[in-house]
Amino acid sequence: MHPSRSLKTTCAVALAATIIMVSAVFAAPTPNWNIKFEKDIKWLSLMETGHLVASTDKGLIGIDPATGEVAWTMEDLKNIKQDRFDPIPFTQFAVIQKGKGFLGAHNRMIVIDYVTGVEKWNSDKLGITSSMGQFLLPEIHALMIYGIHQKGKKWVQVVELETGELIWENKDFFKKRNPQVFQLSASKQTLIGNQEPVFDTDETMITFMNKKAIRKWNAKTGELMWETEIKCKVAPALTYGYCPMLLSDDVSTLYIAAEKSVFAIRPTDGSLVWEKPDKLKGLVYQISIVPQGILVKGGPNPEGKHGDPFMMLLDASTGKKMWDPPWTDILVHPPMQVEVPQDEARRSTV
Asked: What is the CATH number of domain 239-350?
């Protein structure tokens, strides 16, 4: 065989083999299962448990993730909009809003188990027609609901998670301290996106969902225990880029990022640990408690405004800056990773 022809043949075979290999690598994977519906799917959502929930003209449908088979169908929940389906984190439950708008006469709130497709409870006995967001209170196995009452007023109810039985309600829970709400759609607002309640004991929780004050409540009775003013231009909401409130391991101090500062509060009485915290270079994305003090990282808001990336150490006793390196190339993301010796306590919030 002519050498050049042999080389060409070898190259052609090698090229063909390469094409076959590349095709194999980039070939679409074979699905484990597929499913066809008689009706169009309005939306499809993957739950924390791995289960799938779909909204159709036929009803709300649950799909077994292992087999792809329809596990259940709730025919009375047809054409549920996705912004009216709200999974409760760390549970297999979801809150569903039926009706039109906020104040419809036939509106009602339903809680379902999306693994079994069973209605757990509804809001008929509670007197509320819709929910503007809810928070799980795992310490007392309850759900805190910011609801709209049949009379059109907004108030807070705390109910048993499994049964919906009323534990307490307070129409003045947000009196003079209107919470920050977020617009999900033209007809849907929610409280979710604010700081979540922080429990400092098995029965008491601390909330900060407005731009005026932080409060402590008895989670089992709804009694207001103390209030401390921290005035801000905007609520220090997670949606706005602020990090979650952080409770120290010994439960002696609660650290809160608000405006361009970190505040330290005593959970027992709401008094400030630091008289006047230092002003920082931007929003605080992360707070870490380290042996040397309070390590913070931050930067501009989600729109890229009102701040520069920074990292600094604060004195745990005074809140004053201990060091503030002049770094100009700090990445906003990912969050800082803090490592300390195993025998030394470390807490971090992102």
From this structure: 2.40.10.480
